[in-house]
């Protein structure tokens, strides 16, 4: 039996009398790699916040079978204030529980060593002393990924990590996640259905309700039946590869 990490049952959440999630059910087990898709405003962000323990449900429950300190989170990097005068190494170290972005100066030797090891593995040890204001989108993403790994999480949640970065970095990121998935469960929010279905194991379509799809192969018909037609997920720009990839189900072949 796989160990359950987070269990969401009959979850309803509303803001200002507007229901964003209704009767949501979802279980995240160890080693899951779950892709979360859905239209903007459909409740994806609220579902993520629920998994981070940041949402007060109107109804239903969120049960954590792991301490919240073991849930790593990679926010959208456009929300990071680049003017903040902090170095790469300090950002990563601040990911330690009790570490705080505004007080990264508690110098703990083992913490620093682990942060350096993560930067090394991510291929960015050379920029450890740079200020975050000098980084490219891809570098920023790697730095915050390292930060989210500081507590050796059992669950890693990524919010649209494929925005604001170039294609080469994107594919490196997904390969890295595949590797991390051997040690932790991953929940990945994205609007790039083609890419995520190539890497994830299961999919959840979120549009006010959560439709769990126990496979990574999902057809346009299924998406529509989950109230998540492709157009509204991909912001209207449908990559043809998605459709062709799903029409011939051997998309793990060599033609990627």
TrEMBL record:
SUPFAM superfamilies: P-loop containing nucleoside triphosphate hydrolases (SSF52540). InterPro entries: AAA+_ATPase (IPR003593), ABC_transporter-like_ATP-bd (IPR003439), ABC_transporter-like_CS (IPR017871), Metal_Ion_Import_ABC (IPR050153), P-loop_NTPase (IPR027417). GO terms for molecular function: ATP binding; ATP hydrolysis activity. Residues 6-233 form the ABC transporter domain. Coiled coil: none annotated. Keywords: ATP-binding, Nucleotide-binding, Transport. Belongs to the ABC transporter superfamily. This is Zinc transport system ATP-binding protein. It comes from Sunxiuqinia elliptica.
């Amino acid at each position: 039996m796989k160990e359950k990490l987070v269990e969401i049952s009959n979850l309803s959440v509303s803001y200002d009398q507007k229901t964003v999630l209704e009767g949501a059910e979802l279980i995240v087990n160890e080693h899951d790699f779950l892709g979360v898709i859905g239209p903007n405003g459909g409740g994806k962000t609220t579902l993520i916040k629920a998994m981070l323990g940041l949402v007060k449900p109107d109804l239903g429950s969120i049960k954590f079978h792991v301490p919240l300190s073991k849930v790593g989170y990679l926010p959208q990097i456009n929300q990071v204030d680049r003017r903040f005068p902090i170095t790469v190494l300090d950002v990563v170290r601040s990911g330690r529980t009790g570490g705080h972005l505004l007080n990264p100066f508690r110098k703990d030797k083992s913490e620093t060593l682990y942060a350096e090891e993560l930067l090394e593995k991510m291929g960015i040890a050379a920029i450890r002393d740079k200020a975050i204001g000098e980084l490219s989108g891809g570098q920023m993403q790697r730095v915050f990924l390292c930060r989210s790994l500081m507590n050796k999480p059992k669950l890693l949640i990524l919010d649209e990590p494929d925005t604001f970065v170039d294609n080469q970095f994107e594919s490196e990121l997904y390969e890295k996640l595949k590797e991390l998935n051997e040690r932790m469960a991953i929940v990945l929010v994205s609007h790039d259905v083609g890419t995520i279905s190539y890497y994830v194991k299961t999919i959840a379509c979120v549009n006010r309700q959560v439709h769990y799809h126990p496979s990574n192969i999902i057809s346009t018909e299924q998406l529509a039946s989950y109230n998540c037609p492709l157009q509204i997920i991909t912001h209207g720009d449908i990559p043809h590869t998605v459709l062709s990839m799903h029409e011939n189900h051997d998309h793990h072949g060599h033609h990627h």
